[in-house]
From TrEMBL:
Belongs to the sorting nexin family. This is PX domain-containing protein. The keyword Transport applies. Residues 1-122 form the PX domain. It is found in: Cytoplasmic vesicle membrane. GO terms for molecular function: phosphatidylinositol phosphate binding. GO terms for biological process: protein transport. The lineage of its organism: Eukaryota, Metazoa, Ecdysozoa, Arthropoda, Hexapoda. SMART domains: PX (SM00312). It comes from the Eukaryota.
Length: 161
């Protein structure tokens, strides 16, 4: 299960650019914890891309008249609710995770067709051998099964052997 939270925002005031706020996004996915920082404009770009393909919930307004903590906190909460809603909506899940850098999408993929039955194979076929082609048949009869013995010894100790 994947969870997304935006616990806080912070002011970035680095010399080459003008001061701006970034939102700290925390993603818990598959037992891993990811922390990502994104500007509001990046979230807005994601919203525009998702809106092309899906019906999206309301997005917080782009223009904020003031940088008061109360206003910024409301925007943080709205962004968190938006991301959580788009994550729960199955088809947009992959794009949201790719936007956050958690999972990669294929280059140039904007809208995903999940109903497509005509998918190309993305891996080499697996070959199955009835016997090990590198071990000669007469040698295999005389070799002890050290792997099985090692596993049994590791699991049960010397009592099994």
């Amino acid at each position: 299960m994947t969870q997304i939270f935006i616990p806080r925002y912070r002011l970035v005031d680095e010399p080459p650019g003008k001061p701006h706020y970034v939102y700290v996004v925390e993603v818990l996915e598959g037992g891993r914890h990811h922390r990502i920082e994104r500007r509001y404009s990046a979230f807005h770009c994601l919203h525009r891309e998702l809106r092309k393909c899906y019906s999206t919930p309301l997005f917080p307004p782009k223009r904020v008249r003031s940088c008061q903590p109360k206003v910024l906190e409301r925007r943080r909460q709205s962004l968190e609710q938006y991301l959580q809603a788009m994550l729960r909506f199955g088809p947009s899940r992959a794009q949201v995770l790719a936007f956050l850098g958690v999972k990669k999408l294929k280059a140039g993929l904007e809208c995903i067709d999940f109903n497509s039955e005509n998918k190309a194979m993305e891996h080499q076929p697996i070959f199955n051998f009835k016997k090990d082609p590198y071990v000669k048949a007469e040698e295999s009869n005389h070799l002890p099964d050290v792997v099985t013995q090692g596993v049994l010894l590791g699991l049960y100790g010397n009592t099994h052997c």
